[in-house]
Amino acid sequence: MSRSRSVRRMWALDAPTITVDKSILLLGGGGETVTLPAPCFLVEHDEGLVLFDTGLASEAAGDPAAAYGPLAAMFEMTFPEECRLDRQIEALGFRTTDVKRVVLSHAHFDHTGGLHHFTHAEGFVGSGELRYAHNADPHTAGFFRSKDLEAAGRIKWNELPAGYDHDMFGDGSVTLLSLPGHTPGALGLQLRFEDGHTLILTGDAAHLRENIGHTVGMPFDADVVRKLDSLRKLKLLGTRPDVTVWVNHDPQDWATLRATGNEITAASLYAVRS
Ligand SMILES: [Zn+2]
Q: Which residues form the Metallo-beta-lactamase domain (predicted)?
């Protein structure tokens, strides 16, 4: 059996935001607007850096409409220069070329914008995700950005079959969680810290904590039945006392779990729980 290891360090990088009506995030949840972070997470492992999601496109910083056209107003994008993914990686003392592996939670535009920085990296994506992105159902086609899919075409992807979790390094520290439904290949990321505490990043298997709490999807899920199974899986994982589930777009989780700064540690997660 391989030696059990943990992640060295991880960061929840500062994020641009989008603002939408709650009904887009939760079936039956309309009537109020919600401002969501569009985050990226950087993980340092002995084998190198792993990036989970690539957020909005760097060229949208300061002027989202220039990169996204009418989508920028539709989603009320706010993107300060300091939230650029490439600059934040550099500010931590790394280069974008130091990122050895990139994991795509799914291929919607608020997760693929930075892919062009990482065409040198090894990619991990759920099976069928990129195929679906190129040939999506009409009600979801607007969520895929062709420029980002071109960049994705220059990355060598490992496609992970739906229904199977994948231990990236064979040491239990970084595990890709199969959470299909929102899109065919939706993934989450499970990280184990030195003291054994586990953090689960949901990707968009849930947009708000309420999706998990009430087992309710959102109107643009590709497969409603699989989505509900994935929400139940997250709910079950979250019942373990040593697990923190982070709903990546949830504004409350963002404020709470990053309360002590960009770097996320077992201690910072415990501080929130107590
Ligand atoms: Zn998203």
A: 37-249
Q: Are strands 166-167 and 17-21 parallel, antiparallel or unpaired?
A: unpaired
pLDDT tens sequence across 204-229: 999 999 999 999 999 999 999 999 99
In a domain, 124, yes or no: yes
Instruction: Output the CA angle 154-130-27, nearest 5 degrees.
Output: 140
If you average pLDDT over residues 118-125, what whole number do you get?
98
Phi and psi for 210 in degrees, rounded to 5? Answer: -60, -30
**Residue 3 falls within a domain, yes or no?**
no
- Average pLDDT along the chain: 95
Q: How far is the CA of 195 from the centre of ligand 1 (A)?
A: 30
* Domain of 105, in residue numbers: 9-273
User: Which tens digits make up the pLDDT trace of 140-192?
Assistant: 889 999 999 999 999 999 999 999 999 999 999 999 999 999 999 999 999 99
C-alpha 228 – ligand 1 centre gap (Å) = 17
Q: How far is the CA of 96 from the centre of ligand 1 (A)?
A: 22
Distance 15 CA to ligand 1 centre (A): 12
- Ligand 1 centre to CA of 143 (Å) is 9
Percent above pLDDT 90 for the chain: 91
- CATH number of the structural domain spanning residue 152: 3.60.15.10
Q: Compute, in angstroms, the gap from residue 173 CA to the centroid of ligand 1.
A: 24
Please enumerate in sequence order all residues whose Cβ is within 8 A of that of 208, keeping only pairs 6 or more positions apart, or say none.
22, 25, 26, 29, 34, 247, 249, 250
